[in-house]
Write a structure and sequence with these properties.
Oligomer: single chain
Number of helices: 9
Mean pLDDT: 81
Largest sheet: 3 strands, parallel
Number of domains: 2
Helix content: 40-55%
Radius of gyration: 16 Å
Order of helices and strands: EHHHHEHEHHHH
Strand content: 5-15%
Length: about 150
């Protein structure tokens, strides 16, 4: 999938994607999946062969919310053999942000500029920001950030 409207289970990695979607779609509280919507799906999801049954609620929320993907650093807990049944894909946060960047670069750059602007050290450079992203497991995002440094 090129881009995903999905359930996020990775933090802080998903902050840029979250901010970009908020910018594009309005208040994220308007598109969160209420617990009552996914709890009824738990018995069905709990019958699936999951590596960690503690993640069943994430899949149930993704199904109830009609998500295209689950953004997570723990891809092994969300096997394609299970997610394919529901048309959902597990996506690494770095790939998710790059996909969002490809879909709407302005929204992503606006989100990153806002994030950088909230740093407690205003003297931090765009390279400092990219380095932090890279150390947090977002190497492709960091590379794009370096390419766009003059814009943030």
């Amino acid at each position: 999938m090129d881009g995903c409207a999905g359930v996020e289970s990775a933090r802080p990695h998903g902050e840029a994607g979250r901010e970009a979607r908020q910018h594009a779609r309005g208040d994220p509280r308007d598109w969160q999946v209420p617990e009552s919507a996914w709890k009824s799906l738990l018995p069905t999801v709990e019958r699936l062969d999951l590596p960690d049954m503690g993640d069943a609620h994430v899949i149930a929320a993704a199904i109830a919310g009609h998500a295209d993907c689950i953004v997570t650093t723990n891809l092994t807990h969300f096997p394609a053999s299970v997610l394919d049944l529901y048309g959902i894909e597990a996506v690494d946060p770095d790939r998710f942000i790059v996909n969002q960047w490809d879909l709407d670069a302005l929204a992503i750059l606006t989100a990153f500029k806002g994030m950088r602007g909230r740093w407690k050290k205003p003297e931090a450079t765009a390279e400092d920001f990219a380095s932090i992203l890279e150390t947090r497991g977002l190497p492709s995002t960091a590379m794009r950030m370096r390419d766009a440094a003059s814009l943030i």
